[in-house]
Amino acid sequence: MRSLFFEDVNRLGWRDMPMPRPQADHEAVVQTIAATACVVDNMVIKGVTPMEPPFALGHEAVGRVIDMGDAVTGLAIGDVVSIPNHRTCGSCRSCKNHDPLHCEQEDAPFPLLPAYGTPDAYGFGGMFSEAFRVPFASHALVKVPDTIDPLAAVAAGDTLTDAWQATVPHIRKTPEARVLITSNAGYGLYAAQWALAAGAVEVLYVDDDPTRMAVAKKIGATTLQWEEGLEVPPVYNVIVNERQGAEALRFCLLAAAHGAVVENVVIYLEDVPFPLFQMHFSGVTFRSSFCATRLYLPEVISELEAGTIDPRVVESEIFTLDDAPDRLLEQSHKPILLFDESLRAEPAS
């Protein structure tokens, strides 16, 4: 079995690894159908995170169950599934308190954030692999109905669901919500799709990449070119920041209407200043966190089945395993790494 490793800065390579088998009765083995990269993978590849090579990459994929332990229920061999980027047992105190990112199951040495595709994956590896193990599979895995194109669900385990939870619940609470999104990758485009589908009266998409801005316009968002010192009126109720840098964060916080919510979804590796004086008057709520994907994944899959959005519009390219080590270095906004070539298809036009 092949697994794609982060070997060094800007160097990826396939390694031959043993085919995984369930190591506990609650585990399943998932064969990867397709996988995709997000900003975190790009940061790792560029060597700008504290994570040291080598380790297996990948935390966004859709797959097919090919093996499972005797205690796994609700699943069958051959089921297509979405896999949360974080591992979760569903039964410990943290998981029951809706905090699966800090799963504390004692029979697996989970780190602070039990994510695939990191040095702390504890033998579960990365999803840029032909197959991988999933613990507590009865709870963790969410079936993808046959009516859904598997490639449409490839990012459901992370960015697609994260973008849903950063927008839709807030918009549902805010009639005639105005939404602002700063973006530098595919996440912002997913957020724009969800916001428009949820009924936002305006979605302003801010970026500096002409390709992504063209996709945003096609989705139906209003676009604005990002530049340092950019300002907009403080009229936005739901704001999603996916751009790094102090200027981007300040821009978002100062664009907040009274009582607005700002969701920061990008990782800052250094502290940045906050315009607290202005924030005190706007009463803005700021949140910065990873997404506890498993909490929202069933609803996202239901929305895909209903055709609420078409995530495939966001795809930037599709390539096969042999091309992956080089193509992933190019870091387009939402590349699809195709493991099952029977699904070969061009990105949605």
What labels describe this entry?
Rossmann fold; NAD(P)-bd_dom_sf; seven-stranded mixed sheet; about 350 residues; 16 strands; metal-binding; oxidoreductase; alpha/beta; Quinone Oxidoreductase, Chain A, domain 1; six-stranded parallel sheet; Alcohol dehydrogenase catalytic domain-containing protein
Brief summary of the model shown:
This protein has 349 residues and is α/β, with parallel strands linked by helices. It has helices at residues 39-46, 93-96, 137-140, 159-172, 186-197, 210-219, 246-254, 276-282, 293-306, 324-330; strands at residues 2-8, 11-16, 28-36, 55-56, 61-68, 80-82, 131-134, 142-143, 178-182, 202-207, 222-225, 236-241, 256-264, 285-288, 317-320, 335-338. The strands form three sheets. Strands 3, 5, 6, 7, 8, 15 and 16 form a seven-stranded mixed sheet that branches. Strands 11-10-9-12-13-14 form a six-stranded parallel sheet, sandwiched between helices.
Describe the 3D structure.
- It is built from ten helices and 16 strands.
- It is an alpha/beta fold and 349 residues long.
- The strands form three sheets. Strands 3, 5, 6, 7, 8, 15 and 16 form a seven-stranded mixed β-sheet that branches. It has a six-stranded parallel β-sheet with strand order 11-10-9-12-13-14, with helices on both faces.
- The chain is 26% helix and 24% strand.
- The chain has two domains: 209 residues, Medium-chain alcohol dehydrogenases, catalytic domain (Quinone Oxidoreductase, Chain A, domain 1, Alpha-Beta Complex), CATH 3.90.180; 130 residues, Rossmann fold.
